[in-house]
Amino acid sequence: MKKILATLLCVLFLVGIGFSVITMEVGKLLASNSGIVAAGNPYASAAGAEILEKGGNAIDAAIAVSLALGVVEPYASGIGGEGYAVASFNGERIAVDFRSSAPALASVENAEALGLTTSDLRSGPLSICTPGVLAGIIELWLHGGSLPFAELIAPAIRLASEGFVVNNTFASTCGSSYDVLMENAPGFLKDGLFAWETGDIATNPELAETYRYLAENGPQAFYKGELADKISDLIESKEGFLRKTDLENYRALVKEPLHGTYRGYDLFVPSIPVGGPYLIETLNILEHFNLSAFSWDDPLVMNIINQALTFAMIDLLSYSGDPEYVYVPVETLITKDYAKTRFMNIDLNEALNSELYYTDYLGRPDLFENSDSYIEAMLAGAGVIELEPSAAGVGEDTTHFAVIDKDGNAVAWTQTLSSFFGSKVYLDGFFINNEMGNFTLDDTSRGLVPGKRPVTTICPTIIEKDGKVVYLVGTPGGYYIQSTITNVIVDLIDFGMTLDEAQMKPKIIGSPNYPEFRMETGYPENTRLFLEEIMGHSVREFDFPYRSFGSLNLIQVQPDGLMIGIGAFRREGGASAPEY
Amino acid sequence: MRRTILIVGFLIVCIGCFAQESEQAVFEQPVIVTSAGQSPGALQLTVVAKMAKIEHTFEKLLDADQFETETYKTLIIVVGASGKGLGAAGVEIDAELQRVLLLAQKAKEYGTKVIVGNLEGESRRGSSSDEILLVLAPYADALFAKVDANQDDLFTKISEERSIPLKLFEKTVDLVVVLNEFFVK
Q1: I need a labelling partner for A197 at 20 to 30 A (CA). Which of A138, A442, A520, B150 fits?
Q2: Using CB atoms, which residue from A175, A177, A193 is nearest to B123?
Q3: Is A182 an 8 Å CB contact of chain B?
């Protein structure tokens, strides 16, 4: 009897220790010397930390987080989606573009023949582009993965089969989309009937089974195996464009990240067709101003940041596209000299005239074709031209996470379905994206072409100083992404804020899509009055914290090597670290 | 003396029954369900109603002209203002408020009982949802609310001020019990 009891106690002890990662509650900093994961849901960050604890590196952990997010944030990303990752690994920096691409049947001609408008491409089967997440995982794993894929997907399988506690974000997101879920994906609902509620234990047995299939057959089975057949058959039956050949032909692209600098820091960001060049442009403009001479809530500073963001976003909307199909003067847009032309547009005294966004305020990278100097470029190109901005929307319902391991390898990763729940097409436990809505039905740079990747604004960012990772930054938020990331970089670098201060500080937006000055409440009353009455801004306030203003999952490495992470408080994110 | 005691006792029992009846209103079917604010809460209510075997019709944009008071014995209005829902319906919040107010007024005029409720909890307790609730409160014969929507006791206060029953519930599925308590079968 004593022997049996002793054995039982040993078993219980072994089961109990398991993987005892440390996870910090929402909005709290976590410090570690062993690596940190910051993600949009504490379960996902814990999955990454579990892999770090097992001896995995930052790429291993990032893959685990990506897959876990598909379970605990299924509305914001998953294997039916896409994204971009920037990694600093073993001294080398890479950017993996696993953006979705337009299926072969998705062309302007076919859309016109079917009598489709752009609004028809925003939801439902026609909105689906070829998913890229698992292809991105393959490329990252090939670059630096050290643990078997089956081990990396195991935490997500456990979450999907054993369940997780539904938080407020999950419940409110599900609840607000209840009607479309009931119509399109009742299998996702609780008991097939109700919206998931806070405190419920949610499981996703279908997704667990899908993940087990991938664990057994490898991530490439999504693109070539029987799952690919199922995806193709479903979408074809629903008269969407995607076919199995699109899946078979899809490839994630491994590139060099774009490099920019800001006040002595090096930034590594993804290039077009996402937001990296425009973040660099914004910061190049801001570098001309001594922002740290002011306080963070000074209306002069806020006006400058708002305008710099607006000019960069004008350029994104005017000059972006898939480089495989469209020429975009990226190398010019990210230069300090080009930024000087935008610096000249900054009006320190009053708000911009929104009617001039695409005429007088239009950026002119074309003037730099024959010159690197802004003086020569501007002398060569007198006169104003006019451009019709792209009308395509940008989905704002995305997720971002960051990982750093004990060796300082780092990954910044943003992934999405485009809108929450994507196309609302649901198969075997996951939703499929609706990226097609980011194309236009014309022959402009954002026009729909088979194989093309749509323009979006995501911008996972690695910031280094003297060759060492200092910050990992990124956020969801559609047209707010550039603003949120710029806000936090300025707050960290110019105003010397701590990670939690920068994350939790109210934010402002600058974009030509919103002529009014959008800001969260929390600034002094006089700041708002000054912006309105002295500078002529039309201010629109949003109650702090407003979700669209960013869900920043951030990591910092201090000079002594201590790593600090924080999960997004606007969306109940979490930071986790291995316990050893 | 004995007769007096019996009569007084009988009167006490009658008063007690009456008091209980006014706290526990009873509602009749068929029911018509509408949304006030166009959040998906009203649609979820129909799922609950089906589980509770309540004979009901759902019209999320029901207006006073469409409201057949001779057909429906009870009107259930599920309060929840949703920008997305209002946008999809092409309705401004002011027009939505006017719509449900006219419905409630018509119900009162023709003797149709009105139940006003919150199904989605705290997430539907913003300024617009509260405005709708307070406009409808004078016409409600009963209330229901998710527990976390009543943290400030707003529903409790309305219930007490108007001497109407309030049913609180934890999870949406618990509304099946609430509806079974409200409705005559």
Answers
A1: A520
A2: A175
A3: yes
How far B86 CA sits from the closest chain A CA (Å)? 12
Q: How confident is the model at residue A393 (pLDDT cuts 50, 70, 90)?
A: low
Per-residue pLDDT averaged across A378-382, rounded? 78
CB contact under 8 A, A195 and B84: no
Neighbouring-strand partners of residue A430: A427
Q: What is the distance between the alpha carbons of residues A461 and A97, in angstroms, rounded to a whole number?
A: 14
Q: How far apart are CA A496 and CA A490, in angstroms?
A: 8
pLDDT bucket at A104, cuts 50 / 70 / 90: very high
SS (H, E, C) A123-184: CCHHHCCECCHHHHHHHHHHHHCCCCHHHHHHHHHHHHHHCEECCHHHHHHHHHCHHHHHHH
Of B43, B51, B84, the CB nearest to A182: B43
Q: Which residues of A63-102 are buried (b: 16+ CB within 10 A; e: fewer)?
A: bbbbbbbbbbbbbbbbbbbbbbbbbbbeeebbbbbbbbbb
Residues A184, A190: contact at Cβ < 8 Å? no
Kindly identify which residue of chain A lies nearest to residue B122, measuring between CA atoms: A172
Average pLDDT on A491-516 reads 94
- Cα separations (Å) of A371 from A261, A277, A338, A377, A481? 21, 19, 11, 6, 31
Residues of B in contact with A200 (CB under 8 A): 171
Q: Which amino acid is at A200?
A: D
B43 vs A179: CB contact, 8 Å cut-off? Answer: yes
Strand, coil or helix: A86: strand
Give CA–CA dist A410/A36, Å, rounded: 10
Size of interface A-B (CB pairs under 8 A): 39
CB atoms within 10 A of CB A506: 18
* A175 to B120: CB separation less than 8 angstroms, yes or no: yes
Reported ipTM: the value is 0.85
End-to-end CA distance of chain B: 43
Degrees to nearest 5, angle at CA A138 with A136 and A140? 70
Residues of A in contact with B121 (CB under 8 A): 197-198
Q: Which of A168, A195, A198 sits opposite B44 (nearest CB)?
A: A195
Interchain pair A194, B43: CB under 8 A? no
Cross-chain Cβ contact B84/A176 below 8 Å: yes
Angle between helices A299-318 and A336-343 (to 10 degrees): 120
pLDDT at A248 over 80: yes
Q: Does A197 touch chain B (CB under 8 A)?
A: yes
